[in-house]
Amino acid sequence: MNNSASEQQPVPSTVKPVSRRRLLQVFGLVAAEAVLAACNASPLGKLGKTKPTEVPQAPEPKKKIDPPTPIPPKPPDVSRPTLQTESEVSTVREVTYNGFVFFIDQDELPVAYRSPDQKMTYFDIRKLNQCRKKAITEKEVQIFDSITIPKFKEAQVPSTPERPILEQLPKDTLTSQELTKLGIEIMQSDNTQLYIRKGAFLPGAQLERYASGENKLKIVLLNAPFIADIFLKDPKYSQVLPFLLNTEGAIPTLPEQTTDVMNAYRLQMKIKIEYELADSYLKKASGTGDMKEVDSDILSGKYRLYINEHISDEDLYWEMLATSLKKAPSGVYTIIPAKSEKEPECSLIVLSVGEGKKIPGSISITCDGEGNFNLYTFSEILLFGDSNPKASQSYFYSSFLKLSTGEVYKFEGPSGFTLRHEVEHDKDRERELDEYHIDEEAAKTLDGAHKQWKEKGIDTGYYYVFRLPDGRYILTEKETSPKT
Hints:
Oligomer: single chain
Number of strands: 17
């Protein structure tokens, strides 16, 4: 199909490819128990010696979670009030965990914590004791709270001889006026801009057919993780959206994020999770299966219910899209018919250049059936990958040709390679190559550019230039390479 350069995540050649829809289903909240199985349970009594386990970004065989070392609880003092200031925190020790500092009192209650940004948060001691009492009474783990792990700003990637990052545009970059004379229009995004160099129009280069100025090409950059109708509601896309919608299968049409939609999905998830929890409770009551695994499933279900209840509508909306979308195109190519016989038709390429969407990682505070408070780390869950240009991808080359063994996969679309892919569709109107061979043709252009640069020091083959948010420029970028 000509509408997506990315329908499937790259996979190791030693395993069978997994469809994008399957990967999204794995990474959604629906599959949170797989995330739980890889997370680390840390008893507060030994937390300082315990290294949290990172959650892999791919499904793995379910792992058993060893129960935390019990800390004998003391009789709760239900008369103690809620703490208000740090001076009121009467603690016997502090526990550092994932950048947070938890304050533990004489009753082994996590009464407060200090976040990495030095902000103090105090818990209601009465609620802590109520949670402990319920856990002991029901002989079952209870979730007291979940703390979002903050995302820190990434450091600026430095320019290196292997990955040069330019402070200024190359001298052979064409101006918008010069591109207009060649019949090319670029609708820039608010987060990045695309520029084209003269080398793109040389004989044999990708845009050779536009060198005469007789043909038309419109390139649209979209600040979104993928292309869909909901991201094209701005009036400036009014002349683009109809053609995308009229091209069968080009882009998904998605429901708006309304209160009714989110309430219905939240209820649907609640029913699904409770059904799965009921099955785990039945196994526990009948003594069927591995009880450690059953207890892990119960904690997983409770965590999923907790998240489903407390997650924001925006995050839940993205989770809903991730688990339901059959495809999330990062690039689309189609043709806008000519308005009259005197005017040529116009090729249309739309690229997503936005950041991905993730459910933030969290630290869950739980109390087990023996009254011990513990911490569990849940790493962030990837819903949609980044498609915006990255500084670390400057001057990359394609590894496609070295791996062309016939296996079926699609690139996950950083915008530089996706643009080359969609331009190849424009070049290939007569042959109508399949997606695999279109990828191969696009890869050849990158390999040629890289070889010329490494051997002769000439970088004109990198003729697509992206402006980064920090104002610097990179010369194209690589696809997410399949791994061997």
